[in-house]
C-alpha cells in the first residue's frame, strides 16, 4: 500500500495561521496579561482567544488597538 503524501494546508489556512502568529507575537511584545488587554480594547478574553484562532473574525478597531498598544502599524498584524 502506497503512502499518501501529507496534505498541504490551504492558502487561507496558511494565511490565518500566519496572522494568528503575528497577533500573538505583538500581544507578547505589549507585555500585559491578556485579560487586561481585553479590558483596554473592549472585548472578552474568550472572544480574543476565538479571534486568535480565527483571525478573520477580528474587527479592525480591535486590531488597531492592539497595534497602537504595541507601537506598530496595523499592517504588521495583518499578513
Give me the secondary-structure topology.
Elements: H1 11-30, H2 34-41, H3 45-53, H4 60-70
SS element count, helices: 4
Radius of gyration over all CA atoms, rounded: 15 Å
Oligomer: single chain
Structural class: mainly alpha
Number of strands: 0
End-to-end separation: 40 Å
Q: Describe the main β-sheet briefly.
A: none
Average pLDDT rating: 91
Order of helices and strands: HHHH
Strand residue percentage: under 5%
Spans of at least 5 consecutive residues with low confidence: none
- What is the percent of helical residues? 55-70%
User: What sort of overall outline do the alpha carbons produce when their principal axes are compared?
Assistant: elongated
Which features characterize this protein?
single chain; 79 residues; mainly alpha; 4 helices; elongated
Amino acid at each position: 500500500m502506497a503512502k499518501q503524501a501529507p496534505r498541504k494546508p490551504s492558502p487561507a489556512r496558511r494565511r490565518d495561521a500566519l496572522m494568528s502568529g503575528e497577533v500573538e507575537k505583538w500581544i507578547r511584545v505589549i507585555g500585559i496579561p491578556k485579560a487586561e488587554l481585553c479590558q483596554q480594547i473592549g472585548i472578552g478574553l474568550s472572544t480574543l482567544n476565538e479571534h486568535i484562532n480565527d483571525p478573520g473574525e477580528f474587527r479592525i478597531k480591535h486590531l488597531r488597538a492592539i497595534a497602537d498598544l504595541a507601537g506598530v502599524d496595523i499592517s504588521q498584524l495583518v499578513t
